[in-house]
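ugh ok fine here u go
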Amino acid sequence: MQMSRSIFLICAFCLFGVIAAINNSSQRVCIIGAGIAGLSTARYLMEEGIQFTVLEATKYVGGTWRYDSRIGTDENGLPLHTSMYKYLRTNLPKPAMELRGFPLPQNIQSFPSGQVYYDYIQSYAEHFNLIDDIKFLHNVISVKRIDNTWKVKHKHVISGKEFEEDYDFVIIGTGHHSKPNMPNIPGENLFKGSIIHSHDYRVPDPYKQRRVLVIGAGPSGMDIGLEVCNVSRRLIHSHHSNINYRTPFPSHYIKKPDVKEFDETGVYFVDGTFEELDDVIYCTGFEYDYPFLDESCGLDIAKHSVVPLYNYVVNIKQPTMMFLGLVVRACLPPALDAQARYTVALIKGNFTLPSKENMMLDWQHRWNVLRSLGKPLSHIHFLGEKEDEYYAGLTKESGIDRVPPVIYKIRACDTEAKLENLYTYRSYTYTVLNNESFHRTVEKKLDQ
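structure:
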């Protein structure tokens, strides 16, 4: 009798596993975008045998990492999403740029060029056989929640033919580095020189021996500012960052506070000083922009925030929608990979989310802490010094393999190297010794 009961339980357990596998494999998942986020998610869904479709508006993988010398629109009239400039090198070393289980080649620089890194992303897509599952040249125009189903409408950009399909899950992997955030500075229309956003910056050549103003001190502001400084007659850098850069800047690099207003020949700063200029480059960041999302998604989307999200990923109002890559101040490739694995574990049913009420309480707590510190809502996406803690939390909840703590430690060390000297921080090689520690040496010259 006892043996019969045991056999019954074993059979029942096996049947439950089969049913669960059938349910997982029948889930329909839509991934929007074939950049790192979309490719990573596609890889893990494929490994689990879960149905998915990747919709990509261009004919390329890699998203913003693909360099395109054009600005404005592409050959099909769609806005160019890439913000890549020709001579970019990554601002994080190789260990912090690698995708799980697919190391960067050893014979490349510690901080690879943008082109080398883009080739790496292409190799990743080919290695994991993802290309055939991507619908290229399909631009998403509408995502609606109707009768517990996601209705996704997309258009083939060549033929103009529209399609609408039903999905159980929608994953937004388009990032947030394609719609320029333009400052509204009085008198801008009076200025006779050129004004561009860093989104449209490609090469430094047009700025040779010119007087150039760069506004903004984020990663692109510092990187583009120094690149243009190498060729310009005078580089004016306007920003209000309180970061203590100890870089020995050249004599024609001039630090200035915020711009008060333009006139025909230059700008006045808030300290009352004036500079004559030939060109202006806004390095003022990007806006969150998802014009295809319907109000049925239940999100509050502003220029600098998408809320409310649980764990920086899950749409609390509609938990079958996930956003990947909205985190700021983090090692983005490992973060994207972890978020992709977390998302696939959720779709597979490896864990269950808290109730909507509890997820909202968690999000509200984070927002309350920020407000108590006087921080704006845009900081709701910042990880910073909490990056490693975030990875640990994803693992604890979902059971995915943890991003090793050494990754955050490398980022922290690299950040200090940037503060010390923006001209030399890329001269270091970081070698991972184990999950907790690394070794840093001065880089030997390697072939790209």
